[in-house]
Amino acid sequence: MDYVYGPGRNHLFVPGPVNIPEQVIRAMNRNNEDYRSPAVPALTKTLLEDVKKIFKTTSGTPFLIPTTGTGAWESALTNTLSPGDRIVSFLIGQFSLLWIDQQQRLNFFNGKKVNGDRHPALFLVDGVSSICALDFRMDEWGIDVALTGSQKALSLPTGIGIVCASAKALKASKTAKSVRVFFDWNDYLKFYKLGTYWPYTPSIQLLYGLRAALDLIFEEGLDDVIARHARLGQATRLAVQAWGLKNCTQKEEWYSDTVTAVVVPPNIDSSEIVRRAWKRYNLSLGLGLNKVAGKVFRIGHLGHLNELQLLGCLAGVEMVLKDVGYPVKLGSGVAAASAYLQNSTPFIPSRI
Amino acid sequence: MDYVYGPGRNHLFVPGPVNIPEQVIRAMNRNNEDYRSPAVPALTKTLLEDVKKIFKTTSGTPFLIPTTGTGAWESALTNTLSPGDRIVSFLIGQFSLLWIDQQQRLNFFNGKKVNGDRHPALFLVDGVSSICALDFRMDEWGIDVALTGSQKALSLPTGIGIVCASAKALKASKTAKSVRVFFDWNDYLKFYKLGTYWPYTPSIQLLYGLRAALDLIFEEGLDDVIARHARLGQATRLAVQAWGLKNCTQKEEWYSDTVTAVVVPPNIDSSEIVRRAWKRYNLSLGLGLNKVAGKVFRIGHLGHLNELQLLGCLAGVEMVLKDVGYPVKLGSGVAAASAYLQNSTPFIPSRI
Amino acid sequence: MDYVYGPGRNHLFVPGPVNIPEQVIRAMNRNNEDYRSPAVPALTKTLLEDVKKIFKTTSGTPFLIPTTGTGAWESALTNTLSPGDRIVSFLIGQFSLLWIDQQQRLNFFNGKKVNGDRHPALFLVDGVSSICALDFRMDEWGIDVALTGSQKALSLPTGIGIVCASAKALKASKTAKSVRVFFDWNDYLKFYKLGTYWPYTPSIQLLYGLRAALDLIFEEGLDDVIARHARLGQATRLAVQAWGLKNCTQKEEWYSDTVTAVVVPPNIDSSEIVRRAWKRYNLSLGLGLNKVAGKVFRIGHLGHLNELQLLGCLAGVEMVLKDVGYPVKLGSGVAAASAYLQNSTPFIPSRI
Amino acid sequence: MDYVYGPGRNHLFVPGPVNIPEQVIRAMNRNNEDYRSPAVPALTKTLLEDVKKIFKTTSGTPFLIPTTGTGAWESALTNTLSPGDRIVSFLIGQFSLLWIDQQQRLNFFNGKKVNGDRHPALFLVDGVSSICALDFRMDEWGIDVALTGSQKALSLPTGIGIVCASAKALKASKTAKSVRVFFDWNDYLKFYKLGTYWPYTPSIQLLYGLRAALDLIFEEGLDDVIARHARLGQATRLAVQAWGLKNCTQKEEWYSDTVTAVVVPPNIDSSEIVRRAWKRYNLSLGLGLNKVAGKVFRIGHLGHLNELQLLGCLAGVEMVLKDVGYPVKLGSGVAAASAYLQNSTPFIPSRI
């Protein structure tokens, strides 16, 4: 069942799904359980309480939906809106494009930005690639629905769409006329009241995995997790600069600490870089999608990851760049990144 | 993270989620992978081909949707029907009740049975509790959509809704007007054509788990799997009879080889049986749901299970019955079941 | 890699190696680690402290030797004795026979019992099949060396021979002239003093597994673990009696709560029972060894095991007995055992 | 149970125990089994046959002893020699020192090298750090006993001492008078004849793990495994050179492709490098032992490892060197190593 064995560890640097900590893999290594016994609700209760912390909300209501990020999007939209409602969306990349496409197919209209701070619109945020990795403050920023997926910065397998709704969003869900059953928050809320929590069968393994993932995040400290992502993001960008390549993101304020899209010179096909990284160095990089297919490759640097893993990846990218004919100076990106990291990496608190 | 530790193994006899084979737990014990690398499509291709065998279809098109049985239902309905369409449903228990409820909430109407063999209606079958356990022949029986969930007879964790569509159902999906995105078959079909298979991120672990689960089913032989379920179902019913209790299923032709609902005498609360089984004997039984709450308990006997596991369960049920005051003769159910099993259990082929 | 797949769970009732709790399997599911980092000594320190509790000693010194029970024996002997020393041994079964054989091959002499309470002899106890399952009190009983193996009542994989030495035994090890290096306690003691604990590389996985196993034993309570073994042992003996068969152990005071050897009628080959149990019912029983080969089969009932697991086994034994022509009344043993268990099994404390 | 959690993966570069492939971890993730059932001997038979390939012997007899490398040494000596026999040993590092110490404690004498090609002496080789990593040819080189440990290049947990004996060595074992029981080959040979293979209980998990480990080695190809070790060794040495540091191994012909001991300048304590690597970068390096304690640190580069893992380690070493005040040019070692690796690393055959 391992079609493509290569010696040593796969270096997983796609922007999701990401590396799972051994502790989480262990926690999920188990038989099924009766989800109607007292054990699973007791576990679920702790998860619903603790998952709010990664959204930085105390007043939000979380839903752990057995789905992907795409499903989490659909849950956010169909629970708060009625067909024909207007949405103002920001088009800032492939996944916003896909979300806008979903909005249209679900019969919402995309309108223009409305002036005025006091507009009663709901504020929905796709945090799939940011929550648990970047500074995110649902309550403070007045967000009504925020969502993420388990396979991103939480470093779990795919399978839980985590959606968090403000009181205003919950209220909207009582009157929203979009047709929905599987994604309906009200079914969850009914079972929350009963204390059994689940309108249908959850994945026992993912619940224990989520418990372990949250425990690790809290042990490291959410702010330290975010600082680590900032550090790895900056190190990556310094390497890209040292290689003489451009970040696909044009403004510094838009830089992402979870993924870096690197623009390759016109004579190089970025897909060849991704293919070769995997075929020769057991390194998994992300393809450029849609308009930037062939023009960029992506380095995902989110989730359960540390400095030396990233430096191994950067060393690999350098070799692939050389492989495909780009005149990179081997070691240059690693040197730039490690100069920064050697200054900024803290000691591991549990080991001091 | 184990709130309710009890010595020895949990005896899991709810009708889902069911016991996972060690081989499948092992196959899922892994890090994430890039689902856009050549490995995952290669694996997926084998799954899509092989999963058709458990439906006994060669012409159907399967979808492995990251969802639960409830989501698989929704996928079956929204891809084939338009709002206002009429459905004739059979109300034969709690889950048919829930499906009918879903149908109504999705704006389909429930009508009466229509006479005539040649009606052009689509034939949709909820096989969540039967596929891979009971004789099921999608092609031969002219079924248009059949579906199951990974946590049932396939003996996986929850997380894949497996839906199989006939050519007629696929054709219907081209014109069905139900609003859908996450569950839209057409998104899958687009990626099937591309050979990348996934419109959004699948669970890497469940894909490898499904591979292992199918391998085990084919190694045992699907017909032998079905025969095993028939044997365990019959053994359970013989035990119930020996205890002097009634099967909730009133006609023999309706007996299920995957679950037996046992009616308790009026002076006994069946919930107390379920609670006590878990609290004293580490035995997980199913509650009676809805109208039969308190009146029946359920013994699930599906999935990765053998004779002695069932006999251990039956011995446990006897003790619990005695615990709650029912005058059962200890050993009577086990005797009846094992008399049957000692006659009918085949040798394990790989060990002869 | 699964040569002999059979559906459902293997029913493991040999007297070792025994069933491993899922919690322990999980704890061992990990990569290697540097055993010279601070983490492994910190873990080891807790193990050495806590393992003393299963011997009921506060003054003993434990050794966690990467070996089997046979190696633990050799460690006990060679560290305390010099060639030519005399040992008084009790011959009470196959493993005492093997230990006596080892004693002779190691150049110790087997002598007769010496009168007098005050003899300065060391008191060595092979507790491989009893420690953690039966009442055992090293300090109170004045035992000088006690030992067990990880794959027995501790319910781990094979691989740690656990030896505990009294102060008197340690003193003897300073002058014992038996040639030894791998098994030499003094090498361990040297590293104990250094705080690094290991004279050579331990199994990282077994150390974490032992931690989890001890945690489970302490959570259940060692006295409750022992009571559970007494309960399962008695239930097994009642079943044997109900079948009309004899316990190979002739005096009640010698009955073992960890294994029951069942004598079969002269016309039946007990090996055929063991073979058939495995081939037809996925039940693993123990063969009769040496003089009782073909005459007895053994039911191991030690380690991580509960009432319904045992009843499943007993139901299986009944069917096999019938298979081989013994006129057993099906259900009789299960009835006798469950009558006793239904009276004596406590509620699981964590679930009340 | 994780005392010292740090984010991301531990970078394990001690010269053993080494990184375990996920495939092997999976294979070991299992319950115990009856080792007297037909399954375990069938598995063992394949292991004994296949393990000979890593020794490059067809005529040797292998023993899979539940012990460590130290135990494997003891097995090699006590089965072939009698007390008072003379051994000529080569003192070439800490582990040869320990083996010589063991030889003396086991009452063999260390003598001088004897001239003459035709001396009847047995030729014993400690291959713990080389077999499966370096070119090793037992038959061709006329070796009588070769041995390794599971936790080295085989990339398993500690727990199997693998010893392979020539016909001449086996013959010697018939008359060798060293006292031994646990390590006695003759006990194994007796059970080999019976076809049950095990004189005492093996670790079920390690047997399945060894099967998986051998399968991976054969899939990669033993010669390619050796070439990979040569490549990683050379890359490491080039990095050390680029850092301006010295290899502790003075002659090029003595360079090891499994470990590189790096001499630090007199003003730096190499232990501080090892401590800091672990505390700050989650990097596990080996300490200098005995005479070179504080003067060298060791980079283990054996077992399941690839180019980018090594480059991550080298980047980490550079940062630690800078941390402790050594004026390293960051990126210099990585540049030297990757210049070499970019030229020499083959494509992964299964992915071409």
From TrEMBL, chains A, B, C, D:
GO terms for biological process: glycine biosynthetic process, by transamination of glyoxylate. Substrate binds at residue 298. The modification N6-(pyridoxal phosphate)lysine is found at residue 152. One of its GO terms (cellular component) is peroxisome. Residues 119-264 form the Aminotransferase class V domain. The keyword Methyltransferase does not apply. Pfam families: Aminotran_5. Its cofactor is pyridoxal 5'-phosphate. InterPro entries: Aminotrans_V_dom, Aminotrans_V_PyrdxlP_BS, PyrdxlP-dep_Trfase, PyrdxlP-dep_Trfase_major, PyrdxlP-dep_Trfase_small, SP_NH2Trfase/AEP_transaminase. This is alanine--glyoxylate transaminase.
